[in-house]
Amino acid sequence: MRRKLAAGNWKMxxxxxxxxETAALLAQVSDIRAEVLICPPATLLAPxxxxxxxxxxxxxxxxxxxxxxxxxxxxxxxxxxxxxxATYVIVGHSERRADHAETDxxxxxxxxxxxxxxxRAIVCVGETEAERDADNTLAIIGGQLAGSVPDQATxxxxxxxxxxxxxxxxxxxxxxxxxxxxxxxxxxxxxxxFGEGVGRSVRLLYGGSVKPGNAAExxxxxxxxxxxxxxxxxxxxxxxxxxxxLD
Length: 247
Ligand code: 13P
What we know:
The chain has helices at residues 19-28, 45-51, 78-84, 94-99, 104-116, 129-133, 137-148, 176-194, 196-201, 212-219, 236-244; strands spanning 5-9, 35-39, 58-61, 88-91, 120-125, 158-162, 203-207, 226-229. By secondary structure, it is an alpha/beta fold. The protein has one domain: Aldolase class I (TIM Barrel), CATH 3.20.20.70. The radius of gyration is 17 Å and the shape is globular. The model has no long low-confidence stretch (mean pLDDT 97). Residues 9, 93, 163, 168-169, 207-210, 228-232 line the site of 1,3-dihydroxyacetonephosphate.
């Protein structure tokens, strides 16, 4: 059985005042069955870790460097994330692929770095609107999966997030059939490459304009094991409603 996962990606949002939001979230999700994860900006990892000691909430980074330390000004390593209290890290988000020219092979190296530190990696894949319009969605996703996911994947160390670029922050979402088609495809690719046992145990998240109002129907789609939520994860009441819809 795959444990459902509600993951919040705060992106470049959140100051120390936002810790009140985490406190509210902790209270709201204390007895739900789904796993709840917040990936705040790195500056908030340590104070949040102090807040959530009870273990009701998991914490993650939003990116990591392939190296564990060294002369890489402004970067953060998987070791640092773990040291600050993270157990997860998002890698290959489309905003990093676009803003920082991250390639599949870089995402793969980052994933390996995360695994070397015992972090679970949430590897993001997703097509642009032009790629969908050109009927290239599955080819793009297949290529990103093959290039970004290392060979040592297990159901423990890997989560895959399908985030269509055109659905992020836009209020637009694919149809449920379109989400199902991509998630079934990702599942079958993972089974083929890693074997049925591993392929079936990896959790697949949908991301892109998930809100309290559409979460339940998206969670009803086959092979959707949760969500990677941006904007709606910033407000405890919205994010806890999404997490509760997974139960
Ligand atoms: P939104 O939920 O704001 O569309 O963002 C999705 C996302 O990019 C999560 O990683």
